[in-house]
């Protein structure tokens, strides 16, 4: 059991703190242009779409370096569209239009990522964000595979993500209405077959097997950091029980961690997943660029109020999980109780 340093313990104090922070962030958002709120991230996604033809054409080359460049372009673009694009879309951070938010979610989540938008929104927005680090609800337990040893999980398992993702999506379709299931299944097939068709007809692959192998290669290019980031930023931090969870500002400041700026991952995954994850959990409807803009405000506020602001490097978290894998990824996590904050 831990007290939250010198932070106000009563619920009214926690709500007042959150309201004060929200007002500060709201002022920053109101003073920002459309380009800052949405344009920067939309431009990154548009550039990724426009770069795809160059990637497919590079794969026609017999030059190893040009071929590798094509794989790199397609791999980075794939993760920019599927991780950054899907993440922003399901949070409604790409546009202020609800109709367009739904359309973008279908495109990025179902066509590009081969997953179901409904379950993505439910599992990520409602459960993970609504119950961050609450055991059995939003505790990132879906990333735990205790039957795998540390080396298989950290180094080999990421290669299976492109295969597992559509299979999990199809399994989830049993739980949605028939019309939505048929739509999702059709959009997933459209995305996968389009990728396969382009490799055969634009990149010039001669056999289905080689085209499928290239699909797996490009779709798993950044799978390792994708898996690692998803466990680094929550697991190993305080976990809470469902009946004794703290107030929102304490839950997010204690249970979320920022990584440092990493150019490739900032581009492909987005600031809200990498260096501004605390800000994202506090204000999930902000775009990546706006999370980066309000980061100084949030960090200064939490430090002034003597609330936690967790930060660590990628390598430090990597070695922590590799050395304490059994404790962090296999055993049941201990429950943290914060006196007076429940």
From TrEMBL:
<feature type="transmembrane region" description="Helical">
    <location>
        <begin position="182"/>
        <end position="200"/>
    </location>
</feature>
<protein>
    <submittedName>
        <fullName>Fatty acid desaturase 6</fullName>
    </submittedName>
</protein>
<keyword id="KW-1133">Transmembrane helix</keyword>
<keyword id="KW-0812">Transmembrane</keyword>
<feature type="transmembrane region" description="Helical">
    <location>
        <begin position="63"/>
        <end position="82"/>
    </location>
</feature>
<keyword id="KW-0444">Lipid biosynthesis</keyword>
<dbReference type="InterPro" id="IPR005804">
    <property type="entry name" value="FA_desaturase_dom"/>
</dbReference>
<keyword id="KW-0472">Membrane</keyword>
<dbReference type="Pfam" id="PF00487">
    <property type="entry name" value="FA_desaturase"/>
</dbReference>
<dbReference type="InterPro" id="IPR012171">
    <property type="entry name" value="Fatty_acid_desaturase"/>
</dbReference>
<keyword id="KW-0276">Fatty acid metabolism</keyword>
<feature type="domain" description="Fatty acid desaturase">
    <location>
        <begin position="65"/>
        <end position="311"/>
    </location>
</feature>
<feature type="transmembrane region" description="Helical">
    <location>
        <begin position="39"/>
        <end position="57"/>
    </location>
</feature>
<keyword id="KW-0443">Lipid metabolism</keyword>
<feature type="transmembrane region" description="Helical">
    <location>
        <begin position="151"/>
        <end position="170"/>
    </location>
</feature>
<keyword id="KW-0275">Fatty acid biosynthesis</keyword>
<feature type="transmembrane region" description="Helical">
    <location>
        <begin position="103"/>
        <end position="122"/>
    </location>
</feature>
């Amino acid at each position: 059991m831990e007290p939250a340093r010198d932070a106000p313990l009563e619920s009214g104090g926690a709500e007042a703190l959150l309201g004060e922070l929200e007002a500060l962030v709201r002022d920053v958002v109101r003073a920002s242009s459309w380009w800052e709120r949405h344009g920067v991230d939309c431009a990154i996604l548009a550039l990724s779409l426009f770069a795809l033809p160059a990637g497919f054409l590079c794969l026609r080359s017999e030059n190893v370096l040009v071929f590798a460049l094509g794989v790199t372009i397609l791999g980075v673009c794939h993760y920019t569209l599927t991780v950054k694009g899907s993440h922003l879309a399901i949070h409604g951070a790409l546009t202020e239009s609800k109709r367009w938010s739904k359309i973008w979610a279908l495109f990025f989540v179902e066509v590009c990522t081969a997953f179901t938008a409904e379950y993505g929104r439910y599992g990520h927005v409602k459960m993970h964000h609504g119950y961050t680090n609450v055991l059995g609800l939003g505790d990132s337990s879906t990333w735990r595979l205790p039957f795998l040893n540390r080396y298989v999980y950290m180094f080999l398992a990421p290669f299976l993500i492109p295969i597992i993702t559509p299979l999990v999506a199809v399994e989830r379709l049993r739980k949605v209405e028939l019309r939505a299931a048929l739509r999702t299944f059709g959009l997933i097939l459209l995305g996968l077959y389009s990728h396969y068709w382009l490799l055969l007809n634009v990149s010039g692959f001669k056999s289905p097997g080689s085209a499928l192998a290239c699909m797996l290669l490009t779709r798993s290019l950044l799978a390792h950091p994708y898996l690692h980031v998803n466990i680094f930023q929550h697991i190993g931090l305080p976990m809470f029980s469902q009946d004794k969870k703290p107030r929102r500002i304490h839950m997010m400041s204690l249970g979320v961690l920022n990584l440092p700026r990493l150019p490739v991952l900032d581009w492909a995954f987005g600031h809200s997943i990498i260096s501004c994850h605390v800000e994202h959990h506090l204000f999930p409807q902000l775009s990546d660029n706006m999370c980066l803009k309000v980061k100084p405000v949030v960090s200064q506020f939490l430090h002034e109020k003597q609330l936690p602001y967790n930060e660590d490097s990628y390598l430090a978290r990597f070695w922590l999980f590799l050395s304490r894998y059994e404790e962090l990824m296999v055993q049941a996590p201990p429950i943290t109780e914060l006196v007076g904050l429940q």
